[in-house]
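User: Structure please.
Assistant: Input sequence and predicted structure:
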Amino acid sequence: MGRRAADEQEVAGKPHTRGSRRRVFRDTVALTALVAATVSCEKEPTRPERPAQTTLRVGVAQLLATSQVAGLVQLAQILTIEGLARVGEDGRMQPSLADSWTFDESSRMLRVKLRAGVTFTDGTPLDERNAVQALNNSVRELLGPLFDDVDQIVASGDHEIEFRFRRPSLLHLETLEASIVKPGSTNVGTGAYAAAEHSTTDFHGYSGYYLGKPSIDHIVVSNFPSVRAAWAEALRGNIDLLYEVSTDALDSLEHSTTISTHVITRRYQHVVVLNPGIPSLRSPEIRQALNAAIDRDAFVRNALNGYGVPSTGPIWPHYWALTSAPPGSKPVGDQARLQKSKLSFTCLVVPGAVDERIALELKRQFSVAGVEMIVESVTREEIHDRMAQGKYDAALLELISGPTFLRPYLIWFSKGPINLGKFGNKTVDVALQRARNAETENAFKTAVAGVQHAFEEDPPAIFLAWSQRARAVSNHFVVPPADSGRDIMSTLRMWKPADAAQTTRH
């Protein structure tokens, strides 16, 4: 027997000392715990935890349920619908669902190569056949009277389509902005989110989105009776994104430690539309003088709390083809003639803090020029009805007008589909048609300068300023920066909860 075995036998035959009893007790406890853990693992196998659903609560105010340009439908389309191209800050088309495009030598055929791997949010692949079906509907709606230029939209190959036009025009490129909605549906698009059935307020992230599944799983939109009510809920932490913050609320929100604001210059202008059918406003010189009577820098400062960009015409100030004097230069008008005219006119205004403050500033500035502007408060629906019937002197509106040239064309051309009051005049129509007929970039630039000049010579309205708004986002979310001039909504699929972003960084 070895020494070690003899020692172990000797210890085993001796009574336990205090130290040996402690060691036995410790080893017994450890063994018992190990056995219990083993049995537990066998009875209840470990299951991976499901990641929590991320919900973004969006607050909007007084958005109409059916308006295509300023309501819940518009917000829903931003989340769910895409076009062949998106519009850059300079008004040029940038690839989206279209991978590339080229004009043929005659400039009457536009060939478009579709991006591969794109599906609608119900899983249906986007191919050349359903793209053509979708575009035959949306292009007509987008182009209005310019749709007469379209001969055919046809499938021409695997993931290829062709727009065939009856005559060449550089303006036809802006057709690429047309949206793609699955044929047979009203709200199934290729966007990062899918709308719940029959809903414009409930959206779910689409896991098959071709640019990657969005980080936010669920978006819920609440429509509040006023901007102030929505803004109060944002300050209380009950809203994660206040979709549109007016200039009235911006100063208050900018001092918040829980909310970040992101100011954007909208493609909308504050405009006073003038009715040249009434004798006092028939003269182009009088309308020129009314434009010249407005100090736009003071207007932005006093009426918009500094949130706006002065304008003197309908064309987006950064538009690539705008080569004339930049909008914002002071218009020219015969102020002496305006003083002698003792002009008085009534302006229709929708009740609301911003529009009422705009009207007060206009009254003040016009009074300095010897002009009396009488404010008549009416509903938005009544403004549309009165303008359609020609029963108005002037109306304060906020009109979409950029960043493409197509938008001001459709608003100010006398037969345009969204020319609500049939405003405009022959001078403007002729200039717009020249731009429509331009076949080369140089010819188009010349025509666009002519449009700007036509609005100065025979102004159908008083152009005041491009409006600014803000998105207010809870600091519980990290918002990636958008491209220059673009809305942060364009990066929504990449927003992340702040704690998730911190985890990713570490």
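Residues 1-50, 65-70 have pLDDT under 50 and may be disordered.
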